[in-house]
Amino acid sequence: MPPVRRYTLRQLDTFLEVARHQSVSRAAELLGVTQPAVSMQLRQLEEAIGLPLLENTGRRIVLTDAGRDFQDYAIAAVAQLKQLDDAMAERRGIKKGRVELAIVSTAKYFVPMLLVRFRRRFPDIDVVLRVHNRESVMNLLNRNEVDLAIMGRAPDTLDCIATAFADNPLGIVSAPEHSLSRRRRASPTVLADQEFVVRERGSGTRSAMERLFAEHRIAPPIVMEMPSNETIKQAVMAGMGLGFLSLRTIRHELASGHLVLLDLEGLPVMRQWYVTHMSAKRLSPAANAFKSFLIEEAGPLVAAWA
Fold first, then answer.
1. Please, which residues have CB within 8 angstroms of residue 303's CB and are 6 or more apart in sequence?
2. pLDDT tens, residue by residue, 60-113
């Protein structure tokens, strides 16, 4: 007889949340259970496997070598079980279920509004949201951990289906007192010696900025890298330097006069927002409903909101 599996789907889900966040308390919060319950599930899982999967380094929890191998198989197993649920839901023709959605951090300025509109239409569909930079979102897609992703540029290294659904203009902003804030139709070459505060490497906004600089053969000095648009906005308002940001993130700051959009030839750079999934991914009725909602309705909503 084949060996009897001695661990449960709940234990796999618990292990993956702890491994993803490197924290028992955060996993407990996301799973809606107590920390002792999480610890018990992990202990039972390790007893069933016969190997330690996690170790506590004091400040955080890290995977052992066995834990890293187990994580890869657990992700694949959970994804297969979700596809099983999706296939059965499709046969029933029921528009309910769960959508795992990853978005790049810049999209967080409008995606919550879209989720509210979507849930009014499909109250029985739960959307689980993960916010990361572009590189991390692509990793989630590639590992089949999410159904759909929203990003500002279609992946060019993955076998994906990417469909544009809204405009994403990007421009350069300054504090109101900056000398360039009063220039009109200036050439982007005036940026060559201007200091910039920028997003971290792996960010889609950072990549778009670097392509713009390469196109005009300039290399402005970078005074600081920052992991969020909010921090960059505060730094630019404080006079630390210029910033390259999606206009979808700065509507309120422009309206209040705390930031100024520089008037430069060829800017804003017009990009698109894409909804993306792996080509081999069989989307559930719930995921298909959300994708269709984005393609058919999200463009005007995003333009009006941000």
1. 166, 167
2. 899 999 999 999 999 988 888 877 877 776 666 657 789 999 999 999 999 999
Six-digit token string for 287: 């995921």
Contacts of 294 (CB under 8 A, 6+ apart): 114, 150, 163, 165, 166, 275
Q: Distance (Å, rounded) from C-alpha 195 to C-alpha 192? A: 9
Q: What angle do CA 289, 131, 101 make, to 5 degrees?
A: 20
Read off the pLDDT of residues 205-249 as tens digits, 9 standing for 90 and up: 999 999 999 999 999 999 999 999 999 999 999 999 999 999 999
By the 10 Å C-beta count (0-12 exposed, 13-18 middle, 19+ buried), 271 is classed as middle
Q: Which fold has domain 168-270?
A: D-Maltodextrin-Binding Protein; domain 2 (3.40.190)
The whole-angstrom separation of Cα 34 and Cα 27 is: 9
Q: Spelled out in words, what is the top-level CATH class assigned to the domain 94-166+272-305?
A: alpha beta
Structure tokens at 185: 């139709």
